[in-house]
Amino acid sequence: MLRLPWGWDMGTYGPAELDSQVAAVTLPKPEDLHNKAVVGICRQYLNLRYQLLPYLYSAVAETHATGLPLMRSLWLAYPEDAKASVVEDAYLWGESMLVAPVLEPGATHRTTYLPRGVWWDYWSNVRLDGGSEVTREVTLETMPLYVKAGAIVPVGPVKQFTGETSSEPVVLRVYPGADGVMTLYEDDGVSFDYEKGAFTRILCSWNDSSRALSLTVDPKGRIPRGRVFSVQIAGAEASKRLTLSGGSAAVSL
């Protein structure tokens, strides 16, 4: 599936990256580059990428600060889990998401090992118990994504390019089942002004027993004034508005 979108926008293969024999076997056929079904899949995942930019940018900030890779083998987060240490076909994407690519052509099911704890299916919001393998149905359009309990995933609007402005608030999507924290990081995305304090770093903390989300701003950066978030439990239609006009704010869900 990951090969299908390659070059779909122009209908060309671009610069040669493989020798002719390998390319004949591995590259999609030219007619596949104009397949309407493939274009829809590309659009779905491009939109997902832009929606998850707040999560991705914050994860990259963590990588910059700590050296932890963005893509992580499961053993890095679960070193005491013998089963996680031998997983080779799935990976953690940042702190909270587990990606399980479909590697077999025509597969209709994908079995994935989830480490201990509670997990949530990103697409269906079904709660799953970790410490064992789970199997879900898959299609060409579906790449299994799982989110660990306690995660706070910031989700933005669909954009056409990273610098596009939007009046829609970032959604802080909480996945219950455990306490959790995440740091939402933002800067202008183009300059080195963050080195001069031109950034915003917000610690988001979820207390599962009280079902409360609290936000605390790092005073070393900029303090938001009137910053609005939409806060919701994963899978719930209802959400609550949270305005951050200073160093901290909280909301119960």
Write the layout of secondary structure elements.
Elements (H helix, E strand, L loop, with lengths): L19 H7 L9 H16 L1 H14 L4 E2 L1 H4 L13 E3 L3 E3 L9 E6 L3 E4 L5 E3 L2 E6 L7 E4 L3 E4 L14 E5 L5 E7 L13 E8 L4 E6 L9 E7 L6 E5 L3 E5 L1
Parallel strand pairs: 10-14
Antiparallel strand pairs: 1-2, 2-3, 3-8, 4-7, 5-6, 5-8, 9-10, 11-12, 12-13, 13-16, 14-15
The top-level CATH class of the largest domain is Mainly Beta
CATH architecture of the largest domain: Sandwich
- For this structure, the CATH topology of the largest domain is Immunoglobulin-like
- Rg result: 20 Å
Mean pLDDT: 90
Which regions are unreliable across 5 or more consecutive residues at pLDDT < 50? 1-8
Describe the structure in your own words.
It is built from 4 helices and 16 strands. With 253 residues, it is an alpha+beta fold. The protein has 2 domains: 80 residues, Sandwich (Immunoglobulin-like); 101 residues, Golgi alpha-mannosidase II (Immunoglobulin-like, Sandwich), CATH 2.60.40. The protein has a 6-stranded antiparallel beta sheet with strand order 1-2-3-8-5-6. A hairpin with a 6-residue loop joins strand 14 and strand 15. The longest helix is centred in the N-terminal third of the chain and has 16 residues. It starts with 19 loop residues before the first helix and ends with a strand. The N terminus is likely disordered.
